[in-house]
Amino acid sequence: MEPTPKRMPTLDEVAQRAGVSRTAASRAINNAPHVSRAKREAVERAVRELGFVPNPSAQALATRRVGAVVLAVSSDEPGLFADPFFAEVIVGVSAALEQTDLELILLLANSPRGRERFERLLRSRRADGVMLMALRGDDPLGRLAEEADLPVVFGGLPLAGEPRWYVDADNRGGARLAADHLVRSGRRRPVMITGQVDTRVAVTREQGFTEGLKLAGVPLLGVEAGDFTEEGGAAAMERLLAGRPAPDAVFAASDAMAIGALRTLRLHGLRVPEDVAVVGFNDLASARHTNPPLTTVHQPVRALGQEMARMLVGAIEGHDPSPLILPTRLSVRESAPDVPARA
Amino acid sequence: MEPTPKRMPTLDEVAQRAGVSRTAASRAINNAPHVSRAKREAVERAVRELGFVPNPSAQALATRRVGAVVLAVSSDEPGLFADPFFAEVIVGVSAALEQTDLELILLLANSPRGRERFERLLRSRRADGVMLMALRGDDPLGRLAEEADLPVVFGGLPLAGEPRWYVDADNRGGARLAADHLVRSGRRRPVMITGQVDTRVAVTREQGFTEGLKLAGVPLLGVEAGDFTEEGGAAAMERLLAGRPAPDAVFAASDAMAIGALRTLRLHGLRVPEDVAVVGFNDLASARHTNPPLTTVHQPVRALGQEMARMLVGAIEGHDPSPLILPTRLSVRESAPDVPARA
DNA sequence: CGGAGAAGTGGAAGCGCTTCCAGTTCAGCG
DNA sequence: CGCTGAACTGGAAGCGCTTCCACTTCTCCG
Questions:
Q1: Hey, is B153 helix, strand or coil?
Q2: Is pTM, for the whole model, over 0.70?
Q3: Residue A2: what pLDDT?
Q4: Are strands A277-282 and A166-169 parallel, antiparallel or unpaired?
Q5: How far is B261 from chain A (nearest CA, A)?
Q6: Which residues of B touch A58 (CB under 8 A)?
Q7: Which chain D nucleotides are covered by protein, judged by CB under 7 A?
Q8: How far apart are the C-alpha atoms of A168 and A85, rounded to whole Å?
Q9: Are A122 and A144 in contact (CB under 8 A)?
Q10: Residue A335: how many CA atoms within 13 Å on its side-chain side?
Q11: Cα-based torsion angle of the residue sequence B278, B281, B286, B291 in order, rounded to the nearest 10 degrees
Q12: Which residue is nearest to nucleotide C19 (CA to C1')?
């Protein structure tokens, strides 16, 4: 039926051609010790001439190392993955993995079917390690992964517990920066749009913001939860605007939600930043291009991806890398300028 | 060093426990014929009790089917992958793959190192099939993939030639829709922002737009190339505004570039759509939320991903699926309304 | 009731690579 | 010049699963 796939040369053929044993050939290829210089070179030549590439399945079977890691993104929000945040993480992960010979398996584990596949993937040892992102609440994925006794790196802390390996951004610190900034520029009636309340990142950013305000002695007028999407942010802003007194500043736990908030504010004829200052979180490319450009807490998203991958590789190699908290800082733009806006 | 990974049960153990031969167990598990009902059930029970999951490496070695496909995104533009377009494609691919037991390997093949890895991946038959996206010019990736005599599905036609399997959107038709719409709403001084000139998609959209205008007897005042990014679009618009006479409509070959154009127009104090109508291409979520909301050619991006995956699965199974051109349509919003804007 | 063909059965041979183990070889030294 | 330990060598035993093949057992029909 299918065209016979032209068979690739095997290690045996290489060995034969080089006039050495298969053992020697294997050693030469993996440059292991105990091969004479001469044989090593003969093997190298044969490899080149035959265009030999080792068969990963066979290697995996023999070594119990499959040469792949999986990045699982778990989220119920269907649109969430569209957030460029993930793209950026993937770019980072991919960059780090490029230095190794590990492939990246991407798994969107939102649906029940997806979770099932994830479990199967773990149990069948189809990957040498796992990166987990965007876990909600007590998402079973985390436990599952750890039970599989594969190295697991968390991207962002899960709601409960502290895993052995994780990379996160300094969410609390970043949120405090946002609070400080708003207060310092004269805002006194701040509100916040947080994310799903069952995610650690939402909780932590809210805590940080609240703390920051408390230290400054400014009350938080209201909190509404979005779902980290633009739509969610717009809706949350709508609800916040219904409160009294009217807010003069809003901190959104993601840029996407901040952009949604901008939209709602515009709809209500409110000016940004004159009437309401807006601060987001993430600082991806799009934040620079909103109208007005968005003041936002910057976190090194690509680096986050890179570090996750690096940490995982370390763990796979048997080291015990330390968890990492990446720094955040404020990118001040026009939606919440340094100086108080004069209306 | 590393903790002994608790060994998973093997097929032999399952067979033993079920009191059948390994052959029978294998057949039962893959529900192949030639197994009696009784044995089949005995095996199923044993599998359940032991929590057996077949070892993919061993299966791959024996069957020459690895159970994975690769999605390779090739692009020199570093920021391009951040376009939600790709995320949406991935969601589609992932959804289609979820129905099968194929894993998705994601490969960002921008760097030379990435390309090298891609080639190695192909030659080592680490995947059963390939999906290729965002090829530039005479990108060698396409040929490489086809030479590996693995099924290859192209997402979007490559610049030259027509591959056996591909999924594309009706770019030409979509662009004509844009032209028609602008002309019908009274615009007479249109310009265009195209993509990299060495991509088929840019060329085709430009052709379509040009054709549409020609049929309507309206001249195209200018074309500038962006690079499918927001920045590129903004810069192109800048150049276009330098021309005489001033344009009253602009068609951008992607939403990202259209958004960039909006920004530039705003900077120049031009009103959209009163002074200049803007039409984009893609119609992802963000198009709905620009200011003003973007009129844009809609293409079913997620479906594109799904169809690519489905087509690839078909090809892997030995069928010969037909190439697919997905329909496009116009999403009319305020940046280019139906009726001529009165200034 | 005999025989043909379908269905069921399991031993054994791989799939392609790594690695243990039991030697060999060889340089260096007293 | 014999001896010792380090450095090579390669045969063979897996890694866990599929599948060919040679039988054996049913089923059903004339």
A1: strand
A2: yes
A3: 37
A4: unpaired
A5: 11
A6: 57, 61
A7: 7-12, 14-20
A8: 14
A9: yes
A10: 31
A11: 0
A12: A23
pLDDT in tens, B108-160: 988 889 889 999 999 999 999 999 997 777 788 888 888 888 999 999 999 88
* Residue type at position A169: A
Separation CA A123–CA B333 (nearest Å): 49
Answer yes or no: are the C-beta atoms of A307 and A324 closer than 8 Å.
yes
Q: Which of B251, B342, B241, B339 is nearest to B294 (CA)?
A: B251
Nearest by CB to residue B124, choosing from A56, A121, A230, is A56
The size of chain A, in residues, is 343
The confidence band for B341, taking pLDDT boundaries of 50, 70 and 90, is low
**DSSP letter string, B31-73:** T-SS--HHHHHHHHHHHHHHT----HHHHHHHHS--SEEEEEE
Bridge-based pairing state of the strands B68-73 and A152-155: unpaired
Three-state secondary-structure class, residue A175:
helix
CB A72 within 8 A of CB A141: yes
Convert the pLDDT of each residue in A61-109 to its tens digit: 999 999 999 999 987 666 778 888 999 999 999 999 999 999 999 999 8
Nearest CA in chain B to A63: B57
Rounded Cα distance between B298 and B281, Å, is 6
The answer to whether A128 touches A68, Cβ cutoff 8 Å, is yes
Q: Is the CB of B67 under 7 A from strand D?
A: no
At A215, list the tokens.
Answer: 């230290």
Residues B56, B218: Cα–Cα separation, whole Å: 60
Q: At what angle do helices A230-241 and A255-267 cross, to 10 degrees?
A: 50
Asked if A113's CB is within 8 angstroms of B98's CB, the reply is: yes
Strand partners, B251: B192, B279
- The residue written with tokens 């998402």 in the block is A139
Torsion sign across C-alpha atoms A198, A202, A206, A207 = positive
* CB within 8 Å of A41: residues ≥ 6 apart: none
pLDDT tens-place string over residues A284-309: 988 988 889 999 999 999 999 999 99
Provide the residue type at A35 as one letter: V
In the predicted structure, residue A1 carries a pLDDT above the cut 70 = no
- Residue A125 CA to residue A331 CA, distance in Å, equals 42
